[in-house]
Amino acid sequence: MTRADWFAVKIATFNALAFSLIIGCVTYLDARLPSHKSSQIFPQHVRIYPHGYAISLLSGAIIFGTTLLALTKASSWRIKATLPALILAVTGVVSLPFFRPEFPHGGITSWTILVTLISLVSCFIHFLPLEVDWLTAAHISTASKAERAKEYVTLWRTVAISVTIGLVFVIIPWVNFIWNLSPHIVSNETEAFMLSQFGMAGIFGASIYILFGIIYESFRKAHDAADLLLRGRMQDPHSEERTATAALKTATLRTAGSTRDQVFISYSHKDKDWLDRLQTMLKPLVRNGAVSVWAETTLEPGVQWREELEKGLASAKVAVLLVSDHFLASDFIAQEELPPLLNAAEKEGVRILWVYLRPCLYEATPIAGYQAGHNVKKALVELPEPEQQAALLIIAKAIQKAAAEDL
C-alpha cells in the first residue's frame, strides 16, 4: 500500500468511525437521561431516536466510501484537502432532523464540528505541496537550496511541536470543562457522571485523531522537507564546479566568434529511434533553412567529438531534450550537456524544450521547470502511433517557433 493509499484509508476510517460513534453515543445517552434539562422546554422524560443506530451505521459506511473515493480519485490537492471535511459536515447537517425535538442537537453539532476541523487541518497539511520550484532554478546555488530546505524542516517541526504543546495545555482545561458541564445538562448525579465519562471518551478519541492526524502529518511534512537535502541534486558536491566549468568553456567558445543559431538535440543513445523520428519530422524545416539541427549523429568520423560537442553547445539557440529514464540515468548528459545548456538558458535566453519519451522521474530534476514541447500528461510511448505522430508534429512546430524568435 502506498503512502497516499494509507492516508486515504486512515482519514476515511477516522472520519467514519468518529461520526458513527457520535451518532451512536447520542442515541444511547439521550435514551438514558430522563433528567435532561431540555425536558423543561420539550416536556418528555427521555428522548428516543428510533433511527439513531441505523443512521450511525449507514452514515459511517457512506462517509468511509465517499471519503476514500474522493482521496483516491480527485486530481486537485485543494479538493482532496477539503472534501473529507465537507462530507462530514454535510452528513452531520442531513442527520440533524432525525434528532428532534432539540434542533440543532448540541452534542451532534459540537462534536461534528470538532472532528470536521481536525479532518480539514490534517488533510490540508498532508496535501499542501512543498513549494520546490526553486530547486530547479539554475541561478540558485546548492548551498542556498540546502538552506531553504532546512527552513522547511524547521517550519514544519515547529508546527508539529506547537500543536503537541498546545494539545497538552488545552486538554487539561478541556477535560475540566466537560466534567463540570454535565451537571448543567442533567440534574441527576448518576446521569451526570455517565455523561462526563462519555465526554472523557470523546476527548480521548479526538486527541488520538489530532495525534495521528495533525501532529503526525506535520512531522511527516518536516520529514519530506528533510528528504530534499538527501536528493542527489542537492548533495552533489561537484555540481556547482561542473556548472562553472561548463559556463567557462561556453564563454570561451562564444568569444571565439560562434553565434547561437542551432537547434541542439540532447538524447540518450538508447532512444536513438525517437531522435530519428524527430529529425524526419524536422527535415522539411532543415531543407528550407528554417532550422539548423545539431545532434551527435551529425559528427563526421574521425573528428574530435568532445570539441565539436562543446561547439554545438556554444552555438545552441534552442535545446531539445529527449527525456526518458535512459536520458536521466546518463551521467554524461547530466554532467556534460545539461549544465551548459541550463546555464545558457538562464543567462543568455537559450530556449529549452523537452520531449517526454518514456515514464521517468523528470519532476525530480531541473527539467521540470522548463517548457515541454507537447502535452506531457502521458509519455509518447504510452500513446498510439497516430497520436505519437501528431505529438511529433506539435514538437516540430514548437522548435520552429523557438528557432525563429530572437534571443
What would a concise description of this structure say?
With about 400 residues, the chain is mainly alpha-helical. It has helices at about 5-30, 50-75, 75-95, 105-125, 140-185, 190-230, 230-235, 240-255, 270-285, 305-315, 325-330, 330-350, 385-405, and strands spanning about 260-265, 295, 315-325, 350-355.
> Strand sequence of the main sheet, in spatial order?
2-1-3-4
Number of helices in the DSSP assignment: 13
Low-confidence stretches: 232-241, 253-257, 299-303
Radius of gyration: 31 Å
**How many domains make up the coordinates?**
3
CATH topology of the largest domain: Rossmann fold
Top-tier CATH class of the largest domain? Alpha Beta
Secondary-structure element pattern, one letter each: HHHHHHHHEHEHEHHEH
Question: What is the assigned CATH homologous superfamily of the largest domain?
Answer: Toll/interleukin-1 receptor homology (TIR) domain
Q: What is the percentage of strand-forming residues?
A: 5-15%
- Tell me, rounded to a whole number, the average pLDDT: 81
Q: What overall form do the CA principal axes indicate?
A: elongated
Q: What do you see in this structure?
A:
The protein is mainly alpha-helical. It has 3 domains: 1-129, Up-down Bundle (Four Helix Bundle (Hemerythrin (Met), subunit A)); 131-235; 239-404, Rossmann fold. Helices cover 66% and strands 5% of the residues. The protein is built from 13 helices and 4 strands. The protein has a 4-stranded parallel sheet with strand order 2-1-3-4, with helices on both faces. Helix 1 (3-30) runs parallel beside helix 3 (77-95), helix 1 runs antiparallel to helix 6 (189-230) and helix 9 crosses helix 13 (385-404). 34% of the residues are buried. Mean pLDDT is 81; it is low at 232-241, 253-257 and 299-303.
